[in-house]
Amino acid sequence: MLTIYSRIVVPYDHSELSKKALQSAMTLAKQDIKIELYVLMVIQPEITIAYQQTNTRENQREAFGEVRNIIEKKLSVLPNRTRTFVLEGNPPSLIVDFVKEHDGDLIVMGSRGLSGLKELFLGSVSHYVVQKAPCPVLVVK
Question: Which domain of life is it from (predicted)?
Answer without folding.
Answer: Bacteria
